[in-house]
Amino acid sequence: MEPAPNAPGARLVKVKGPGPVPVCLRVNDRLYCLPLEPRCSLLDALRQHLGLTGTKRVCNLGECGACTVLLDSRPINACITLAVECDGRSITTIEGIATDGRLDPLQEAFIRCDAVQCGFCTPGQIMAARAFLARNPNPSEEQIRRAMAGNLCRCGTYDQIVQAVRLACRDGGAPSADCGRPDAAARRRR
Amino acid sequence: MRIFRTRVEFEGREYEEETLWSGAEPPPWGPEAELKVAGRAVARVDAVDKVTGRARFTEDVVVPGMLYAAVLRSPHAHARVRRVDTRRAVSLDGVRAVLYHGNAPSIVLPNGEPIFDRWVRYYGQAVAAVAATTEERAREGIARIAVQYETYPFVTDPDQAAREGAPLVQPCGNRPAGHNPRVYERGDPRQGEQEAEVLIEQEFRTPVVVHQCFEPHCAVCWWDGAELTAWTSTQAVHAVADALAAVFGLPRNRVHVRAEAIGGGFGSKQHLGEEVVLAALLARQTGCPIKLSLDRDAESVATGHREATVQRVRLGARRDGTLTLIDHRAVIGLGAYGREGMSVTGPSRELYRCPNVHTEELFTYTNLAPARAFRGPGYTEGLFALESAMDDLARRLRLDPVELRLRNLTDDEPVGVRPYSSKPLDTIYRIGAAAAGWSSPKPAPSRPWRRRGRGMATQIWGGGGGPPAYAWIRLEPDGTAVVLVGSQDIGTGTRTALAQIAAEELGLPLESVRVEEGDSLYTPYGPTSAGSQTVSSIGPAVQAAAYQARTALLAIAADRLGEPADSLVIREGAICHGTAGERRLPIADLLRPLSPFALLGQGDRGPNPVGVAIRTFGAHFAEVEVDIETGEIFLVRLVAVHDCGRVISPLQARSQVAGGVIQGIGYSLTEELVVDPSTGIALNPNLQGYLLPTAADVPGIEALFSGEIDSVANSLGVKGLGEPPIIAVAPAIANAVADALGIRLANLPITRARILDALQRTREQTGARIRTRSSDRSARGH
Predict the structure, then answer these.
(1) Residue B41 Ramachandran class (φ > 0 left, ψ -120 to 50 alpha, else beta)
(2) For a Cys staple, B457 with which of B72, B429, B655, B731, CB 3.0–4.6 Å?
């Protein structure tokens, strides 16, 4: 942990605010420069200031993972990250992962496996899975379950999410018999 | 249209409904019908919107000029609001309006809770609201309101609230008037007790649990003159529109309620809530659109709960397992307002063939938010008690738990003494037992300090649906169709199922059908998304509307082709000769030259069949390992078998079951809103302390279906599936734990602490030595 700002031995930290300060965020490869209060979370900046409402607010305390976005390719909870901390950095949200109108393999896999119920946690699930697969392209089911445990789903879509992540990492989301026979994964495990 | 009377079941209650019905009934889809679109595994029709973040939830609605609202909530469980000083809030830059009891109109919500009363009766009850230019400003405004409270004694436990001398939640007392307690009796319970060769008696307790919908209760409201538009995350656009029209004295056609995507409801979004009323009031006062979203704390304490119950079950049986007595008494919390309590003892009246039954439900006010239905309300709590007691009875009689249940099966619904429309419970037990390896020897625990156990439980619930429910289908000149229904998709997949039903009946490919739901102004009346009824209520109406549209199309085709309509069919979007015949004319080619036109199929849900009871059945089989040193429960396997009639959307049905089971796992093992008895304050109003299951906590859920199509129930042969999957989870797990440890855990949730306590008590009582890891080690000479 870093020492508190301006405590003995700490680096001298430039104090920002009060009042709006200029912040530049590169979101989904587009640069947005706007004045934001230093207390504004990255989540509020995305949803309320940039109109990118795909990222969801659920617990607002970093407990549920619904607001997961990638900050320089690393998954973070946007609700407990200050927008000013992200100044000059690169952010990827759910709106930015389809390329040229084609869905990301994970998005395809989520659709195919019905890994979506009410859909409110889905963007966070997909972003967390994306970061996980980038670290571990060929995980076991146990590893997927552990990696995805930080993303809660009140509808209880976990089995389908695990299947979707397996499908996406196995064959990039190509059609597979597994999701048509939804209990195949459960059966295999025994 | 004519007036018809029919019996309808809703969440454990049956009543007579008067309904308007055209009398038109389309030919039913018999059990042998060869269906092409319905019953096929298809992607959720709104899945692309949901995986791209495009789906529009009320939380995502932004309107130009919109202000944000925040709510000040009571820090006390019971208090009189003596003084509210709003001056420092009003003077804050950016604050546009402040509402409290001193300047708000007197409004009572449909659940009986007043908006801004001078009395607050639960922790978190709304005291004032602020509208401001930003959310932060609104919250700052809230922080600047000074309130003087005069606190009063409170009670949050239903059992204590029922006692003489308990603090009074309402001035009239803690027992709401009416049939309270609600008593039912058949046969002679005293005789049943005398005839019993074995008696089981046990007290059960279930906790307060929170729906925790991920999209909070929220609303965006604005006025155009005397017209109110309300986006809201709701399970009932039509019921909310009715209630708003009444509250604001508006003509019904001047209220527009919308809910496009809904981030979960689970019962907590069935009625008009404070979020809509406050947003509408603040919008009227400021002249600006208002957005109000509850934060997670408020979601936890102010949107209602599955309230706590204390239940006592007594079962009497002969040695062969024949039940002679079921006596089930429950004290049920209601929260601080409301009258209609959940039917906790319903399963004890209905599930088994027992001649002597006594049930009693005593409802008590408590200083908590008013109870709200939560997936399988009442039955989930009640079946935990009944099915746990049945398990104890089986153990006492040395009978297989499935066998005990088979010996007490009833073909007739025992309260109304009518046959069931279908009841494949024996098939369900067979499928479940086979899938769970029920009769195979129990494998040894995976570690020496764990114990392995198996348990099962039965589920009964309604879900037959019924009128009123209507559907309109508009055919477009290009051969596509729009289905307009007044229901909503809260995540269950109704949009997909209704699209499949319409496509099937119309002979169109699924991609050509669009379902519009969640709009009170442009759709015909549709019921609340509750009671597991959407597919069984609206489905037949959609089929009827599609049948009418198809009949019209065929008549037009007959005119065009100069052939009799009855020689033509519609297949994959084209007019054909017979079912296997030649493709003559794509519907688009038939209709385009006739454009413009308006072609509408109208359908309505007919009455329910006379003289039968429609219920859904299921059984859950759980296998667990319990660590006797840490008290941790590991779920090895959970098999859920359900009977929902014909399955329209297999993928989504499977998701429903797995999801319900996982919610049931939370109810069984971890979920409880902990209320401090000394302050009445909830200690875990967040997702850090209120523990939902995670992907790492649950086993793969095996979801299986009876496969029986209920052709008596309705024209599609469908029954509900939304709630049944949660209902039997807790008793199945508790019974597996009892099998593993030989101890009955009668209080939910079955936490590690409770397991360790129970183990400790058993050790003390029996002086038994239970082998643990440390004793293993010492045995091995470490």
Answers:
(1) beta
(2) B731
